[in-house]
Amino acid sequence: MQELAIVTDSTADLPPALAQEMGITIVPLKVIFGREVYRDGVDLDRTTFYQRLHAGEVATTSQPSPGEFEAAYRHLLTRAKSIVSIHISRRLSGTVNAAETARSLLPEADITVVDSRLVAGALGLVVRTAARAAQEGKPPAEVLSLIDQLITAIKVYFSIESLEYLRRGGRIGGAQALLGTILKINPILTLADGVIQPFEKVWGQKAALRRLAEIATAAAGNRPLFCQVLTGDNQETAAALASLLSGLPPGSTVETAAIGTVVAAHTGPGVYGIVFCPKRALEPVP
């Protein structure tokens, strides 16, 4: 029996093959077009989703049920002593609440539910790091300490073509203050304590891309950085941003990650951004 199993939800945007390789269980959220309900990453691929979004269809989302989490937990407890379940920010979704309800239905089980206060690639990075530590045989307490360390270290900045998707889905947070501003402003937004907040206003996408790269470079200083470029349905934009990050300190890593359907339903297809942290934050606490 393994010591520890890692669970997350589909907003971590982990490729299925990677999740399987690392032993990560993903409980999917739902994407809804009218009366059609799809499991994120299971029944609906990104290409079809973006085609429907570009065609003007409105997508909404819903969290997993406590029963879905309970079923996942019960299955894992047949082969694992403990479970750490890491999820999208409580202030963006009710997913954490559903996981906590499921945990309460299994009072004898060793299950820890973590509100990451993150989403998308940032959440995925925490989950991947926790899963690697679990595979290395680290005890649950050490894995949880690593998770806390990483959540504090990770920074998220992103920009979108329109605030309408965030407004419509009720996830706009402090960015509400930017509604109604003049056209051609590309707001740079951030996640602060699990909620979306405005960071800066810049004029034009090229300026926004340059500013995102500057933010990461300034945060790095002389330290190697792990940096992830987040992309919606805009691969060229992501490539341009990745090229601007070439000035990061030696030893830095830059990778590109696709934003999944649930997150894109609330940001729109034109979302792009960066997730970064010092590389040392990815290692166990001494």
TrEMBL record:
The keyword Lipid biosynthesis does not apply. Signal peptide: none annotated. It comes from the Bacteria. GO terms for molecular function: lipid binding. SUPFAM superfamilies: DAK1/DegV-like. The keyword Membrane does not apply. Transmembrane segments: none annotated. Pfam families: DegV. Keywords: Lipid-binding. PANTHER family: DEGV DOMAIN-CONTAINING PROTEIN DR_1986-RELATED, FATTY ACID-BINDING PROTEIN TM_1468. This is DegV family protein with EDD domain. It comes from Thermodesulfitimonas autotrophica.
